[in-house]
Design a protein that fits this description.
Length: 185
């Protein structure tokens, strides 16, 4: 349930389009992406001839973050590879670590529970790092945002970090624009 934002300028009455801070997209070609707007991700995927399973297996799902240019207020897009974690592996890790500690450790029950939690936490960290490593080649193949589309600046802020903060209006250039949360989609 992503939050939806709109930027409003006090100096010139400019209003940005309603937008989430990020959205999900399907990579359909080398540098071609189709947005999967919330809450119609599944039906859009179907229209494009994909299922969630296939899109994940082929590593076609990417997150697109909106980054606001600090100099001109333009909304830029940054593509981010998603590190998919498998639920069965996480649950399997939890069951294994609990079973091993609860049955095998020759210590008191509280100690066993703490040990199980620590082992599961360590497993989770390793698994997360493994998934991140798997996503690295995908990240390298995505277009990277170096310069603002409009003014070539290299300074950006994620849209979500600017909510209720004073930022630059892309229409009049005054630092009088604020993004407000308008609801949940
Ligand atoms: Zn700019
Ligand atoms: Zn303005």
């Amino acid at each position: 349930m992503p939050a939806i934002y709109r930027g409003k300028c006090r100096a010139c009455a400019y209003q940005s389009p309603l937008t989430p801070a990020r959205y999900l997209a399907l990579r359909v070609g080398v540098n071609e992406f189709e947005p999967l707007p919330h809450p119609c991700e599944s039906s859009t995927l179907e229209q494009l001839g994909y299922t969630w399973k296939r899109a994940k297996r082929e590593r076609r799902l990417v997150a697109v973050d909106y980054l606001i240019c600090d100099r001109c207020g333009n909304i830029n897009e940054q593509y981010r590879a998603i590190a998919h974690q498998s639920c069965p592996i996480v649950i399997g890790g939890l069951i294994l670590s609990c079973t091993a500690c609860l049955i095998l450790l020759p210590i008191n029950p509280i100690g066993r529970i703490i040990a199980a939690w620590v082992i599961f936490w360590l497993f989770g960290k390793q698994y997360e790092a493994y998934c991140d490593r798997q996503a690295e080649p995908i990240q390298r193949s995505l277009p990277s945002l170096e310069l603002c589309d409009r003014c070539n600046s290299t300074q950006f802020h994620p849209l979500s970090s600017l909510v209720n903060q004073q930022s630059i209006c892309p229409a009049c250039g005054a630092r009088e624009l604020k993004y407000y949360m308008q609801g949940i989609s």
